[in-house]
Design a protein that fits this description.
Number of strands: 12
Mean pLDDT: 94
CATH superfamily of the largest domain: Jelly Rolls
Largest sheet: 6 strands, antiparallel
Low-confidence stretches: none
Structural class: mainly beta
CATH class of the largest domain: Mainly Beta
CATH architecture of the largest domain: Sandwich
Strand content: over 45%
CATH topology of the largest domain: Jelly Rolls
Number of helices: 1
Distance between the termini: 7 Å
Radius of gyration: 17 Å
Order of helices and strands: EEEEEEEEEEEEH
Length: 211
């Protein structure tokens, strides 16, 4: 099942990202994380805060993207400004990664799609594409219909969509504007970055065990 929720033992066995969580904080609140993965990544989805880790203090604004590579110790959050959303990803991935950050999804009055051919209704400007790496989408606002491995899934806040290398994926319908994290883990194969399409880059080589 490519869509799962936060929690230990929820993630498909093939995934390099082995755990994620979403923490919502308001001014005056603090939070302390216990490390779970060999490697961890923290992205600020909304708001601002101070993050303390490995002897450092970082004033983190919306879209801050931190790699917490030490495999021991804790890290904590304080000095929260406004409603703040933190998305943490834990696991054991390689050194050469694809991209990571925040993306949005919304309905378009004139949908355009430069991606590969589809056989389903589309009301967004997303493109049907694949990667030379695995990719994870973690939704922290809104809800939508996504396609991965050729099947549709309704997703909302707290859902993660895991798409293995070479499998096409898309966001075809948005029912409430989406904000989500994307995380592309270890590059493999030809190690081409970004969105790839059959019609431009050649046929996708889907990893059949990553479903």
């Amino acid at each position: 099942m490519p869509v799962f929720r936060s929690g230990l033992d929820q993630v498909p066995a093939w995934c390099e990202m082995q755990f994620f969580d979403i923490v919502e904080l308001e001014p005056g609140q603090t939070h302390q994380y216990e490390r779970i993965g060999t490697k961890e990544k923290l992205i600020v989805g909304n708001g601002a805060c101070r993050i303390r880790f490995e002897g450092q203090e970082i004033a983190a604004q919306e879209r801050a993207n931190l790699d917490l590579t030490a495999n021991t110790g804790q890290f904590s959050v304080d000095a929260v400004e406004g409603s703040t959303t933190l998305i943490r990803m834990c696991g054991d991935w390689g050194q050469e990664l694809g991209g990571s950050g925040i993306f949005t999804g919304e309905t378009s009055a004139e949908p355009q799609d430069k991606g590969d051919v589809i056989n389903y209704e589309k009301t967004t400007n997303f493109d049907n594409h694949f990667h030379d790496c695995d990719e994870y989408w973690i939704v922290f606002q809104g809800n939508a219909l996504v396609y991965t491995e050729g099947k549709p899934y309704r997703v909302g806040i707290g859902d993660c969509v895991a798409t293995g290398m070479g499998h096409h994926h898309d966001m075809s319908q948005v029912y409430a504007p989406v904000r989500a994290v994307y995380f592309e883990t270890t590059m493999a194969g030809q190690k081409r970055r970004g969105h790839l399409w059959d019609h431009t880059h050649g046929p996708a080589q889907a990893q059949k065990e990553r479903i």
